Amino acid sequence: MKKTAIVALAGIAAVTVALSGCGRTEPGAEGGGDDAAGFAADASIGVALPDRTSENWVLAGDLFENGLEEAGFTGDVQYAGSSNAVGDQQQQVQQMIDAGVEVIVIGAADTNQLATQLEAADAADITVIAYDRLIQNSDLVDYYVAFDNFNVGVLQAESLLEGLEANFPGESPWNVELFSGSSDDSNSAVFFDGAMSVLQPAIDDGTLNVVSGQTTVQQTATEDWAAENAQNRMDTIITSSYQGVELHGVLSPNDNLARAIIASATGAGFPVPVVTGQDSEVASVESIVAGEQYSTIYKDTRALVAATIDMVSQLQAGEEVTTTGEADNGAVEVPSNLLDPVIVTQENAAEAYADNPDLEPLTQQ
Ligand code: BGC
């Protein structure tokens, strides 16, 4: 367009809409994705995160603040409080909608409690990206960015079996207990299903003995992902099922719970069992290097936030959004970008965290 033409058009309000409409793509028909293709380069982007109970959420908040700003956007990053997280988050998302954001990135406090807010976002033509946790039963979730959560569970279970074989060779059937995450987080069942795809056959053929008999996602849930709930459940199971019985291993869905489970077991006088984890939290990486916690999962938050901001930039530019597949949220197949998780044990910790200046030094002890 000639300079004179630009000047002539400059006062016309419609120009922004017309220009931003250029190159607009109509993303995948399924799961929405039909909003906000092409918007102002300095648009406001809302990020609603659940809580600060895991280090990954704390890190994500900082990375979103900085990364959105670097990409030229105005970021509005909010955390739900821990006492009324669901209500807080609903209110924060509504405020973002009222403030006129173009995209809202949501790490849901409760993956089933955002229906009203998604309707309001849709009515305001705002794109919704589910971050890490897939919002359930709604066709108003436009995109999903996460690590492959089923595979997280598979890797945890494989490492549990590997650790049992390494630490207690020839002692099978191994006595184990299973923990899953909070029931208001749709990831919990996905992690657990992934793990059980490996563990159920080993339970069925007698390789593993779940002494408590608690093997369903409901029986093994840890509400609010709270460490004290995991510790209490482990204490109770030890009292009821492990009098004079060895505890060989525990499937833990994340690091925060892993450390609580280890505290329970050692507090009851047991040696540290083989315990899995997730998130590569500092205290757990230290524990793995020291030969206590057996494994964790590395889901590099820097990569996940960068992938999300890339998605926002693609939407801003009106480009086709990069996706690797789709994820079923009970209502639709949501176009998704799923990253690969990495299993970390004492053996590969230095290698796995080699490019992470926060974690790599912890492996050099
Ligand atoms: C996340 C995990 C985290 C857990 C508790 C899950 O949805 O995927 O990384 O440990 O929530 O915050």
Structural class: alpha/beta
Strand order of the largest sheet: 2-1-3-4-5-12-11
Principal-axis shape equals elongated
> On the 0-100 scale, what is the average pLDDT?
91
Ligands, ions, cofactors: beta-D-glucopyranose
Indicate the low-confidence ranges by residue numbers: 1-36
Give the biggest beta sheet.
7 strands, mixed
Radius of gyration: 23 Å
Question: How far apart, in Å, are the first and last alpha carbons?
Answer: 61 Å
Pfam family, one: Peripla_BP_4
InterPro entries: Bact_Solute-Bind_Prot2, Peripla_BP_I, SBP_2_dom
Subcellular location: Cell envelope
Protein name: Sugar ABC transporter substrate-binding protein
Describe this entry's structure for a reader.
There is one protein chain. This protein has 365 residues and is α/β, with parallel strands linked by helices. Helices cover 42% and strands 16% of the residues. It contains 13 helices and 13 strands. The protein has helices at residues 3-9, 14-21, 55-70, 85-99, 115-123, 149-167, 186-204, 217-220, 227-241, 255-267, 282-289, 301-317, 349-352; strands spanning 44-49, 74-79, 103-106, 127-131, 143-147, 174-178, 208-210, 249-251, 274-275, 295-298, 325-328, 333-339, 342-345. The strands form three sheets. The chain has a seven-stranded mixed sheet with strand order 2-1-3-4-5-12-11, with helices on both faces. A four-stranded parallel sheet has the order 7-6-8-9, with helices on both faces. Strands 10-13 form a two-stranded antiparallel sheet. Strand 11 and strand 12 form a beta hairpin. Helix 4 packs parallel to helix 5 (115-123), helix 6 runs parallel beside helix 7 (186-204) and helix 9 packs parallel to helix 10 (255-267). It is elongated. It starts with a helix and ends in a 13-residue tail after the last helix. The structure holds beta-D-glucopyranose. Residues 53-54, 56, 132-133, 181, 185, 187, 225, 254, 278-279 line the site of beta-D-glucopyranose (BGC). Residues 45-320 form the Periplasmic binding protein domain. It is found in: Cell envelope. It comes from Agrococcus versicolor. Residues 1-20 form the signal peptide.
